[in-house]
Design goal:
single chain, 250 residues, alpha/beta, Rossmann fold, 7-stranded parallel beta sheet, binds 2-hydroxyethylsulfonic acid, NAD(P)-bd_dom_sf, SDR_fam, SDR family oxidoreductase
């Protein structure tokens, strides 16, 4: 088993939970490959943290093949943290955009699948591998307007649950992190097409939604348990949120 410095690949690293995870793993002494589409943000993060930046889109086969080649050439890899994803729209099932649903499946489901497939041999080869899948409480239950995001996160969750069965006995943990309400700079803004008022309304009157750092801390905690301890699923919500649909607001 490889016992050198631990090394992680984090997708969705240009902002929010992905960027926070890069920072927290670097602070804990991990080597990190930070992956995202936006080169400028990634370069800034790399300069601040010492992470290695790889510009890649998880929805593009060639990008992921190039990412895997760079990662493997750089040495052993111990963790893949699949953060790239997101929501588009808050429409009902009846009125939701098929294109939005397709885009959410592309990044949340097929993006996670693609990167996981590409790095699994290398994760297994170290004898101490982890696959983290950042789903959502939208992977566990639904809510009106959840639509394609709920469907995509349910599907993404089943990558983790199925993979864990398929890898039993192998030195690779599969860890699902399912956050509820997290206030990041972009999640709701992206969801609602840049409509800041609508994005702000998601968090209106809520006493302390989770932060990206809260979730990154949970991710880092799961990764730093002794390797025989597999946190199958970690559900994390702010205290003010009891379920997908019950939120205390001032
Ligand atoms: C985000 C949680 O409630 O917006 O993954 O679906 S929610």
């Amino acid at each position: 088993m490889d016992t050198g410095t631990l090394r992680a690949v984090v997708t969705g690293a240009s902002s929010g939970i992905g960027a926070a995870t890069v920072r927290q793993l670097r602070a804990r002494g991990w080597d990190v490959v930070a992956v995202a589409r936006r080169a400028d943000r990634l370069a800034e993060l790399a300069a601040q943290t010492g992470a290695v930046a790889v510009v890649a889109d998880v929805t593009v086969d060639d990008d992921v093949a190039r990412l895997a080649a760079v990662v493997v050439a750089g040495g052993p890899v111990h963790a893949l943290v699949n953060v790239a994803g997101g929501a588009l729209g808050g429409a009902s099932v009846e009125t939701g955009s098929v294109d939005d649903w397709r885009a959410m499946f592309e990044v949340n489901v097929l993006g996670t699948l693609r990167v996981t497939q590409a790095l699994l041999p290398a994760l297994r080869a170290t004898g101490r591998g982890d696959v983290v899948v950042l789903t959502s409480t939208a992977a566990l239950d639904t809510y009106p307007g959840g639509g394609g995001y709920v469907a995509a996160k349910h599907a993404e969750r089943q990558i983790a649950t199925t993979l864990r069965l398929e890898l039993v006995g192998q030195p690779v943990r599969v860890i699902e992190i399912a956050p509820g309400m997290v206030r990041t700079e972009e999640f709701s803004l992206n969801r609602f097409g840049g409509d800041a008022a609508r994005a702000d309304a998601v968090y209106a009157g809520v006493d302390a939604p989770l932060t990206a750092d809260d979730v990154a801390d949970a991710i880092a905690w799961t990764l730093t348990r002794p390797h025989h301890v597999n946190i199958d699923q970690l559900v994390i919500r702010p205290r003010a949120q009891a379920s997908n649909t019950l939120v205390a607001r001032a």
